């Protein structure tokens, strides 16, 4: 899979309100922008009494729905194909029902890990932290698998590393090629940081995965998400 592809609109199939209220629905979006919210269908209730209890009802976003995300800490992420690295993504657009109820506000955080998967690297979400509520929700969602890799050698332009978030394993092998690497910030305690200085030296090479997190990490729910 090319890592240069742009985000494409996708569809979802079902939204449930509570245990008994369901509706057929679709997701629509015109562009990646907070001002252009995702729309997730119309919610129907089987009774007025049930509708009156909406605040206490369980809203379910169905498996297969897509959550657009971005990564605010760096322009790109670099890891080795075998590496597991923590990362926190940000929901890029408001997600609403077709009745305009806000389900997931833009700016909400999704914590998880970049993990090896199917001869590539994949983001696996673990927790959704809603921006407008003081609580977090377990979430089962993954990005597509990024399979394209790049070989880093001493001839590689080190500018590719500047402004990147680099996994601790990738940083170690890259340091063997380029020498000293100064980190502006280390994230997650396990080694995602921003490169500020690279001193060239060495002669080895390293295979890495270079990820554009703003186009390649949109998340697809693998199971229903209860809000």
Describe the protein in words.
The protein has helices spanning 48-52, 168-178, 213-216; strands at 14-17, 21-24, 27-28, 38-40, 59-61, 66-67, 69-70, 76-79, 85-91, 95-97, 102-104, 109-117, 120-129, 136-142, 150-152, 164-166, 181-187, 192-198, 206-211, 219-221, 225-226. With 227 residues, the protein is mainly beta. The chain folds into two domains: 14-71 and 87-142 and 216-226, no CATH class; 150-211, no CATH class. The strands form four sheets. Strands 6-20-14-13-12-9-7 form a seven-stranded antiparallel sheet. Mean pLDDT is 72; it is low at 1-36, 41-56, 183-194 and 196-203.
Query: What spatial form do the alpha-carbon principal axes imply?
Result: elongated
In terms of DSSP E residues, the strand content is 35-45%
Helix fraction, binned, reads under 10%
Mean pLDDT: 72
Note the gap between the termini. 32 Å
SSE order in H/E notation? EEEEHEEEEEEEEEEEEHEEEHEE
What is the radius of gyration? 20 Å
Helical element count? Answer: 3
Spatial order of the strands forming the largest sheet: 6-20-14-13-12-9-7
Count of structural domains: 2
Structural class: mainly beta
- Could you tell me the number of beta strands? 21
Q: Would you identify the regions where 5 or more consecutive residues have pLDDT less than 50?
A: 1-36, 41-56, 183-194, 196-203
Report the sheet with the most strands, covering strand number, pairing sense and barrel closure: 7 strands, antiparallel
């Amino acid at each position: 899979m090319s890592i240069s592809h742009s985000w494409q609109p996708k569809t979802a199939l079902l939204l449930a309100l509570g245990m008994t209220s369901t509706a057929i629905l679709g997701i629509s979006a015109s562009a990646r922008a907070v001002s252009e919210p995702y729309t997730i269908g119309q919610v129907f209730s089987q009774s007025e009494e049930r509708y009156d209890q909406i605040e206490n009802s369980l809203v379910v976003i169905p498996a297969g729905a897509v959550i657009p995300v971005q990564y605010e800490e760096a322009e790109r992420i670099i890891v080795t194909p075998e590496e597991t690295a923590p990362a926190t993504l940000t929901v890029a657009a408001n997600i609403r029902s077709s009745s305009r109820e806000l389900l997931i506000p833009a700016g909400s955080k999704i914590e998880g890990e970049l993990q090896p998967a199917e001869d590539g690297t994949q983001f696996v979400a673990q927790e959704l932290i809603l921006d407008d509520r003081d609580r977090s929700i377990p979430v089962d969602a993954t990005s597509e698998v990024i399979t394209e890799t790049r070989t880093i050698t001493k001839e590689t332009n080190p500018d590719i590393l500047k402004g990147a978030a680099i996994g601790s394993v990738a940083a170690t092998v890259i340091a063997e090629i380029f020498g000293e690497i100064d980190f502006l910030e280390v994230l997650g305690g396990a080694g995602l940081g921003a490169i500020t200085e690279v001193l060239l030296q060495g002669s080895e090479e390293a295979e890495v995965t270079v990820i554009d997190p703003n186009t390649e990490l949109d998340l697809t729910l693998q199971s229903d998400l209860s809000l």
